[in-house]
Specification:
The protein has 357 residues and is α/β, with parallel strands linked by helices. Helix content is 41%, strand content 12%. The chain is built from twelve helices and ten strands. It has a seven-stranded mixed beta sheet, sandwiched between helices. Strand 4, helix 6 and strand 5 form a beta-alpha-beta unit. Helix 2 packs parallel to helix 8, helix 3 runs parallel beside helix 4 and helix 9 runs parallel beside helix 12. The site of pyridoxal-5'-phosphate has 15 residues, from helix 3.
Length: 357
C-alpha cells in the first residue's frame, strides 16, 4: 500500500521521490535474487510471464544466433505462440515427443539434440499449467548442456512453490509471474544467466538496465518480491497443506465417480493442480456454469484460453477424450478440506441431474 500512496515517485527521476522508488525496486530485485540464488543483475522485471517468455524466445533467435528451437506441444501459449511468431526463415522449430501423461520423452530429446550441431534453444516448461506434469530441470538442463544447447524453462507455475537454486541449476533462462504465488497481477520477471545478453522487446527508455523500456510498475515489483518472500519462507508448510488437499480431492472424486480419470502424471506432478476427466456429462461449459453459480471457481483449460471455445491444446496433444468434461481444479494455501467436500457434493448433484435428464 505505501507504494500506491506515499512512495509514488518515478524511479528514473533523480530527485528524492524518484530515488525512494528506485531504492524500492532494487531492494525487491535483491529479495528475488536471494530466493532464487542468482545475481540481481540477472533479473529483469516485465509486465507479466507472457512478456518474459516472448522476450526469450524472440531474443534467442535475434541476438543469440539460435537457428533451431526444440519445444513441446503442451507449452503455454506464451511460448507456443511466440514460437509461431518467430521468423521461420531464420529458425526451425522441432517438437519433442511426449508420453500420454505429459512427461517429456527424454530419449527423443537426446535424439533431436544429437541430430544436428546447429545453435539450439530448448524451451520446455517446468510444470504444465493445465495438467501439472513436471519435468526434472536438472536432468533436462544437463542433457542440454551435454549437447551445447541453451535451455529456457517457463517456470511460471512453479516459482514460489518449489526451491530454485540458480547457482547450480543448469538453466539459462526462466520466467515468473507474481499472481501465481499470491502477488499482484500484471508483473513478472525474467532471469537471463550471465553473460548471455538479450536486447529489448519493448523499446524506449533505459529502464531495467536498457533491457525493458517503460516506467516501472513499482507497487507491482515490490508486491512481487514481498509475495515471493512469503511464499518461499512458508513453502514447506504450504506445500504439505496443498498436497494433502490435492490427494484428498482425488480420493473423494474416485469414490464419487469411479469412472473418472486423472490427466497428467501421477508421480511427478505440480501439487497445486488436479485435472480430472469426469464421466457422464457431455457439456463441460454447462458444468462450469453450474459450479460458478455455486461459488466454485474451476476451469476447463488455462484461464488465458477460456472463452475461446476450443478444446484445450494440451489435452488434444496428449490424445485425451475432449468430448468428456475435463476440469482443472487449482488449490492454494487458502483452501480447506470442507471446500473440497462441498465441490464434490455439488459435482454429484450436477452430474447426477444430467444423468437423469
Ligand atoms: N506460462 C505459464 C505456464 C502460465 O501458467 C502462465 C499464466 O497462466 C503464463 C506463462 C503467462 O503468465 P502471465 O499471465 O503473467 O502472462
Amino acid at each position: 500500500m505505501p507504494y500506491l500512496t506515499d512512495i509514488y515517485g518515478n524511479a528514473s527521476s533523480t530527485h528524492q521521490f524518484g530515488r525512494a522508488a528506485r531504492a524500492a525496486i532494487e531492494t525487491a530485485r535483491k529479495t528475488v535474487a536471494a530466493h532464487l540464488h542468482c545475481s540481481p543483475m540477472e533479473l529483469y522485471f516485465t509486465s507479466c510471464g507472457t512478456e518474459a517468455d516472448n522476450m526469450i524466445i524472440l531474443g534467442a533467435v535475434r541476438d543469440l544466433q539460435v537457428t533451431r528451437i526444440i519445444s513441446s506441444a503442451i507449452e503455454h501459449h506464451a511460448v507456443g505462440h511466440s514460437l509461431e511468431a518467430c521468423d521461420h526463415d531464420k529458425v526451425k522449430i522441432e517438437m519433442v515427443r511426449l508420453h500420454p501423461n505429459g512427461q517429456v520423452d527424454l530419449d527423443h530429446l537426446r535424439e533431436l539434440l544429437g541430430r544436428s550441431d546447429e545453435k539450439t534453444l530448448v524451451s520446455l516448461m517446468h510444470a504444465n499449467n493445465e495438467i501439472g506434469s513436471l519435468i526434472d530441470l536438472e536432468e533436462v538442463g544437463n542433457t542440454c548442456r551435454e549437447f551445447g544447447a541453451l535451455f529456457h524453462s517457463d517456470t511460471v507455475q512453479t516459482i514460489g512453490h518449489y526451491e530454485f537454486d540458480l547457482a547450480t541449476l543448469p538453466v539459462d533462462f526462466i520466467t515468473g509471474s507474481a499472481h501465481k504465488f499470491h502477488g499482484p497481477k500484471g508483473i513478472g520477471f525474467l532471469y537471463i544467466r550471465r553473460p548471455l545478453q538479450i536486447s529489448p522487446l519493448i523499446h524506449g527508455g533505459a529502464q531495467e538496465r536498457s533491457k525493458r523500456a517503460g516506467t516501472e510498475n513499482i507497487y507491482g515489483i515490490v508486491g512481487l518480491a514481498k509475495a515471493l518472500d512469503i511464499a518461499c519462507t512458508e513453502m514447506a508448510a504450504h506445500r504439505r497443506h496443498v498436497e494433502s488437499l490435492k490427494s484428498y480431492m482425488a480420493e473423494k472424486i474416485r469414490e464419487a465417480f469411479p469412472e473418472a480419470t486423472f490427466n497428467g502424471c501421477k508421480d511427478r506432478s505440480l501439487y497445486t493442480v488436479l485435472n480430472v476427466s469426469l464421466p457422464l456429462s457431455p457439456n463441460a461449459d454447462m458444468l462450469l456454469f453450474l459450479l460458478d453459480i455455486d461459488g466454485i471457481a474451476a476451469s476447463a483449460g488455462s484461464a488465458c484460453s477460456s472463452g475461446s471455445n476450443q478444446a484445450s491444446h494440451v489435452l488434444t496433444a496428449l490424445g485425451v477424450d475432449t468430448s468428456r468434461p475435463n476440469l482443472r481444479f487449482s488449490f492454494s494455501k487458502f483452501n480447506t478440506r470442507q471446500e473440497i467436500d462441498y465441490v464434490v457434493e455439488r459435482l454429484k448433484v450436477h452430474l447426477g441431474a444430467e444423468v437423469s435428464a
